């Protein structure tokens, strides 16, 4: 299996491959030494550059020659200067840039064989036998046709004398691998496509900006987002922005949708809401196939309700801007003491594509790299293309029957993390939809002990999705034996029949303690679920926690500026970062040392280092000595004096070493490198917890919570006793809700003990 292994090589983090060694190593090496060409085709999307970088550097690490084909299939047809060899430095400092550095174009001529024949000749002349295509389903279909015709095109080129028999023999087969880049996320076989997360960032940024002005004037905004046949952006942005109504192609409304829409908006206004947001996908239509446009929706709202209504068509703004950290690196897996493994979307998909194309046999069919759950896999390209052309599976409507009125408690235990409010919002509203009573336990275990509990309703969580922090209140106090009697009393007084923990490692410890206390306290024999939410991503039973995405995005923005002082919030950080980057270009050589939070877990430091192209990072899991630090100083001096590098970036986990503090490293680099560079430090601290949750964290929080509510509903029904009490006393009724491999999974808390390093 492929793992992207990130090592410190001085210049920056390098992506290399760890492959299973076979007995016939020379044969394997001969397979890997190929000439690869990479192109971007069709519409551009953020994250393409990160993919290009991975293809080039992983290919070179395997001993391959890598070529750029500029301007997509157009450049392949035209040849000449459009096909150029790529080098390691060719892809330096491009991860943060949107679009594609080698250009993209639509080439209708490529549909004709005579132009494909010319493209084949250009590849053969450059010795290219492997092709990595980054684009949508149209581009990938064209690439597969090109591969299918390759043998016949070779024969035709030989007959016409345009290539020799020897050239035809050397290029007897063409391997093709596709990477799906589309902001619409409209390709079958992969959960997400390159660019869709960044597009969600643009939409949520626009919606968040609109919210303040809409509320001030009690306006209704209709936002139109992209997606001709796919409502992914619309439905995800509606979840992330707490929109009141959404129109998507997969779930066409009945003809009476204007009545239902106006009833919903009226209901929200009566509940005290000052604004309404309606999101419509550009391909939305009713059940009869009649298009539903943003202007049509505006007319309905104005004529029926008299609302001051405005339309915002985001258009190509959704394609622009810098890629999110998710589109650069999908940071899921853990780090061990020696090797850092990363599951990436842009970067990992590019690395996987190179591995597949270099190991492909002549008779292998074209493949496409897909991301399913947390696994990067490859599937037959045309199978996915054919299934993409079919009608997308509609999102199932939730149909709940209200039966027994259960009471469920919600609490946060741990530290604030962006996305917590979105999880509470989803829990309260879905439990309320079931007809359950929801009790919010303020300030975690401390509030539980003090009796600070309050009933929560549908309207009490309005506006929570877009807010950072923890509106319900949070404490890092962990439940212990001294709390048992009073917690049992609170559960009994409030008739709480299930508990939902939303928090970090402290939530796991608290829920585990209650589960272990079931033998002494019958009140603890209720379903217990932990939804992991912490920026440090250090909770057992899951590969990703709510809040980590927002945190890495914030760190990446800061690190890219190499700024020495951060005193602003995330909302103002983007503008400040751009200015600082420009200002830093005029300064003398400078090294920035940034301290990152995370306790003893180096996850944030490692992933931020990859996403920002840091020179070195220091984490608790990888021990280092003064000799290593001195060596890094010398490497930095060499870069500054010989390689023409003007800025350096070092990341330090806050607890990586008790003696080699940020101040110590700053003083060491300042003294030893004073003849080559100056040194600045920044300690990000609690600002990393974020101000506004990223679209990914909002959507993930809601999806995980909905799954947790469904699980709790099932458990409550299963363990309901004739007297109305709950008797959940088995290990599988106290679980961690996590993302493992390709699925959401509920793992018994007891089962996680053996895999947890409690110290």
Features:
759 residues, Rossmann fold, disordered N terminus, 7-stranded mixed beta sheet, 4 domains, 25 strands, alpha/beta, 18% strand
Write the layout of secondary structure elements.
Blueprint lengths: L2 E6 L4 E6 L6 H8 L2 E6 L7 H14 L3 E5 L2 H7 L4 E3 L27 H13 L4 E6 L1 H23 L5 H6 L4 E6 L15 H22 L1 E7 L6 H10 L3 E3 L9 H14 L5 E6 L12 H12 L2 E6 L11 H4 L11 E3 L3 H14 L7 E6 L2 E6 H8 L18 E5 L8 H15 L2 E5 L2 H7 L2 E4 L27 H10 L4 E6 L1 H12 L11 E5 L15 H14 L8 H15 L5 E7 L6 H10 L3 E3 L7 H18 L3 E7 L8 H11 L5 E6 L11 H24 L15 E7 L2 E6 L11
Parallel strand pairs: 3-4, 3-6, 6-7, 7-13, 8-10, 8-11, 9-10, 15-16, 15-18, 18-19, 19-24, 20-22, 20-23, 21-22
Antiparallel strand pairs: 1-2, 1-12, 4-5, 13-14, 16-17, 24-25
GO molecular function, one term: monosaccharide binding
Protein name: 6-phosphofructokinase
Main location: cytoplasm
Describe the structure.
By secondary structure, the protein is α/β, with parallel strands linked by helices. The strands form five sheets. A seven-stranded mixed β-sheet has the order 5-4-3-6-7-13-14, with helices on both faces. Helices cover 38% and strands 18% of the residues. α4 (113-125) packs across α5. It folds into four domains: 35-192 and 324-389, Rossmann fold, CATH 3.40.50.450; 196-318, Rossmann fold (3-Layer(aba) Sandwich), CATH 3.40.50; 407-545 and 693-755, 3-Layer(aba) Sandwich (Rossmann fold); 550-688, Rossmann fold, CATH 3.40.50. It holds the Pfam family PFK. Its EC number is 2.7.1.11.
């Amino acid at each position: 299996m492929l793992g992207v292994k990130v090592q410190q090589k001085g210049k920056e983090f390098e992506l290399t491959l760890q492959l299973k060694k076979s007995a016939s190593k020379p044969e394997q090496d001969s397979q890997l030494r190929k000439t690869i060409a990479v192109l971007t085709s069709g519409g551009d999307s953020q994250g393409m550059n990160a993919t290009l970088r991975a293809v080039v550097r992983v290919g070179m690490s395997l001993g391959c020659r890598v070529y750029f084909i500029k301007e997509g299939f157009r450049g392949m047809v035209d040849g000449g200067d459009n096909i150029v060899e790529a080098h390691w430095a060719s892809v330096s400092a491009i991860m943060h840039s949107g679009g594609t550095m080698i250009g993209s174009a639509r080439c209708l001529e490529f549909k004709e064989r005579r132009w494909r024949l010319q493209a084949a000749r250009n590849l053969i002349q450059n010795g290219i036998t492997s092709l990595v295509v980054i684009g949508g389903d149209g581009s990938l279909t064209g690439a597969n046709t090109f591969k299918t015709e390759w043998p016949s095109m070779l024969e035709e080129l030989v007959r016409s004398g345009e290539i020799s028999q020897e050239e035809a023999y050397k290029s007897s087969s063409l391997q093709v691998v596709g990477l799906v880049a589309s902001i619409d996320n409209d390709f079958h076989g992969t959960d997400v496509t390159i660019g869709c997360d960044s597009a969600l960032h643009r939409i949520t940024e626009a919606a968040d900006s609109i919210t303040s002005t809409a509320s001030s004037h009690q306006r209704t905004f209709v936002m139109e987002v992209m997606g001709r046949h796919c409502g992914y952006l619309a439905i995800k942005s509606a979840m992330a922005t707490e929109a009141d109504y959404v129109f998507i192609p997969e779930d066409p409304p009945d003809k009476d949708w204007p009545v239902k829409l106006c009833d919903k908006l009226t209901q929200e206004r009566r509940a005290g809401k000052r604004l309404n947001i309606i999101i419509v996908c550009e391909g939305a239509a009713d059940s009869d196939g009649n298009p539903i446009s943003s202007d049509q929706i505006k007319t309905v709202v104005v004529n029926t309700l008299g609302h001051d209504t405005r339309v915002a068509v985001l258009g190509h703004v959704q394609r622009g801007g810098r890629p999110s950290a998710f589109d650069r690196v999908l940071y899921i897996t853990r780090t061990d003491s020696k090797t850092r493994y990363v599951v990436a979307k842009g970067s990992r998909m590019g690395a996987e594509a190179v591995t597949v194309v270099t190991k492909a046999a002549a008779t292998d069919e074209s493949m496409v790299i897909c991301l399913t759950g947390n696994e990067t896999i490859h599937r037959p390209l045309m199978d996915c293309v054919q299934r993409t052309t079919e009608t997308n599976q509609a999102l199932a409507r939730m149909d709940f029957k209200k039966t027994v009125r259960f009471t469920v408690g919600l609490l946060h235990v741990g530290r604030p993390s962006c996305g917590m409010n979105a999880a509470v919002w989803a829990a309260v509203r879905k439990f309320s939809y079931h007809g359950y009573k929801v009790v919010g336990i303020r300030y975690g275990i401390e509030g539980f002990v003090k009796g600070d509990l309050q009933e929560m309703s549908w309207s009490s969580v309005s506006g929570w999705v877009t807010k950072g922090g923890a509106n319900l209140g949070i404490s890092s106090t962990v439940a212990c034996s001294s709390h048992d009697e009073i917690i049992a009393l609170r559960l009994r007084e409030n008739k709480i029949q299930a508990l939902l923990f939303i928090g970090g490692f402290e939530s796991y410890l608290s829920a585990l303690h209650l589960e272990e206390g079931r033998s002494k306290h019958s009140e603890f024999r209720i379903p217990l679920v932990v939804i992991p939410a912490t920026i440090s991503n250090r909770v057992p039973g899951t590969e990703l926690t709510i809040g980590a995405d927002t945190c890495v995005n914030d760190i990446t923005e800061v690190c890219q500026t190499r700024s020495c002082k951060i005193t602003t919030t995330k909302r103002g950080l983007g503008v400040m970062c751009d200015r600082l980057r420009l200002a830093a270009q005029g300064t003398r050589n400078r090294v920035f040392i940034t301290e990152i939070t995370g306790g003893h877990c180096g996850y944030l430091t490692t992933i931020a280092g990859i996403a920002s192209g840091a020179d070195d990072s220091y984490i608790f899991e990888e021990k280092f000595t003064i000799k290593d630090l001195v060596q890094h100083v010398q490497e930095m001096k060499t870069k500054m004096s010989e390689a023409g590098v003007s800025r350096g970036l070092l990341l330090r986990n806050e607890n990586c070493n008790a003696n080699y503090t940020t101040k110590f490293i700053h003083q060491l680099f300042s003294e030893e490198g004073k003849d080559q560079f100056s040194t600045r430090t920044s300690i990000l601290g609690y600002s990393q917890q974020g101000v506004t949750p990223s679209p990914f964290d909002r959507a993930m929080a809601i999806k995980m919570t909905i799954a947790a509510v469904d699980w709790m509903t099932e458990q409550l029904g299963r363990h309901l006793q004739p007297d109305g009490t709950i008797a959940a006393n088995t290990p599988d009724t106290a679980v961690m809700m996590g993302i493992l491999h390709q699925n959401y999974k509920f793992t018994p808390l007891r089962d996680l003990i053996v895999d947890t390093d409690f110290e």
